[in-house]
Amino acid sequence: MSKHTPTPWKIENRSSADLSGQKHTNYQVNQDDGTAIALLGENKKANARLIAAAPELLDICKSQLEELKAIPDPYQWIRRHIRELEQIIAKAKGEGTA
């Protein structure tokens, strides 16, 4: 699996007008150099924010997983969090999915 596009990712508002002159706002997630990663339609700013935060969320999950694994003889709740973090990290990396 290839690595994701380097961070940071930023959101840009992209306004346009249709043929009738009605204004629309789209949201584009860009790399630092302005290269587009994703374009989301109107009213999708929450999704754009989540996409832009995804690489940092993955990094935090990986870091927390390593810290939890380092605890000797972890309690049941810690083992549950370890499994959950392993699953979500695998999903983000495209491992174990069809």
Number of domains: 1
Helix count? 2
Termini gap:
13 Å
Overall pLDDT, averaged?
A: 81
**Poorly predicted segments:** none
The secondary-structure element order is EEEHH
The major sheet is characterized as: 3 strands, antiparallel
Count of distinct strands: 3
What integer value in Å does the Rg equal? 18 Å
Could you say which overall geometry the principal axes of the C-alpha atoms support? elongated
- Please state roughly what percent of the residues sit in beta strands, choosing from under 5%, 5-15%, 15-25%, 25-35%, 35-45% or over 45%: 15-25%
What spatial order of strands do you see in the largest sheet? Answer: 1-2-3
Description:
The chain has 98 residues and is of the alpha+beta class. The protein has one domain. It is 44% helix and 23% strand. Strands 1-2-3 form a three-stranded antiparallel beta sheet, with helices on one face. Strand 1 (9-17) and strand 2 form a beta hairpin. Helix 1 (45-69) crosses helix 2 (76-93). The longest helix has 25 residues, at 45-69. The mean pLDDT is 81.
Keywords, please?
elongated, 98 residues, alpha+beta, 23% strand
Write the layout of secondary structure elements.
Layout: E1 9-17, E2 23-31, E3 36-40, H1 45-69, H2 76-93
Antiparallel strand pairs: 1-2, 2-3
Helix pairs in contact: 1-2
In short:
It is built from two helices and three strands. By secondary structure, the chain is an alpha+beta fold.
